[in-house]
Amino acid sequence: MKRKSAPLPGDTLKSIAAAGGISSATLSRVLNHPEKVRPDLRARAMALLAEAGYVPHGAARSLASRKTRTMGAIIPTVDSALFAKLVDGMQQAIHEHGYQLLLASTNYSPAREAGEVRALIERGVDAMMLVGRSRDPELYELLHSKGIPFVTTCHYDAADPWPMVGWDNAAAAQRIADYLLDIGHRRLGVIAGISKDNDRAADRVAGFTRALKRRGIDLPPQYVIEKPYTVPEARRAMATLLRLPEPPTAVMCGNDILAYGALQECLWQNLRVPEQISITGFDNIEMAAHCRPGITTLNVPAFELGQRAANILLAADADTPPENVCIELELIVRDTTAPPRSSTSARLGS
Fold first, then answer.
1. CATH of domain 13-64
2. Whether 185 contacts 278, CB under 8 Å
3. Would you say residue 350 has pLDDT above 60?
4. Where do the HTH lacI-type domain residues begin and end (predicted)?
């Protein structure tokens, strides 16, 4: 049987389809609605298009379908292993359906986020992923008025009337508090992220405080320090806690970067962790498992969450309303936590 010659770049879909032995309708569907084509046929069609050097006319397709096949993701910072994993998961999921990702960061600024949302709308994105819920309600109204589906991530509140993928930050912090209390700690401290315009940081402090109060333990203001998510700032915060007349025997940190900085300060001051002081993190980034001692933390499956957020957006045109996703974070106990020793406070105060 004579093999059909490969089509040259610039051939029409019809001639490419004829040369490849599939229908032009299938090729068109792969280009415009890849999610509706079974994976093996989609892969075959994409290989044929690539071999032909075919480049679809994006502008014409956008005008015809009113879609640009792009999605936006706005994250607080690109300097975060957690958000990098989140975006990676989203990008891989939408790429399989023929979408491209436009990324923006806000440096935790609501005004900057508002500008990025408007810029992405002007670019014609078909859907958008946001982080958290701390923003001007007018932004939600703007997205609704433009008919742009969106999903929020890294938080969960059943009262919020929009799709979300995340976890209850207050409940997660309560779990850390209960763990530390259960192993015997009674004087605790917190090194948190800046809570202004960051609902995740605020919810974690609130949840930790409530858990202690429920067990009859106060958390005085001087035992709670807010800092940017950097190692030097975490070291300064831990140094401040260690200078208290009665330093904490355990410190919950708002993420693993803060926990690592707190750990380094303790080691620099020749304090043994966890024998003299316990430290916990949040996120379970790779560094938490490989530093010494390994950091006790909560595991956030960021890549999976990014994929699930993408799936909600990909299904936004379906008749079935999206289901919110709330996960329970797993506590990973490593080597920075242990029961307190009776003489710990005396040694810390020396």
1. 1.10.260.40
2. yes
3. no
4. 12-65
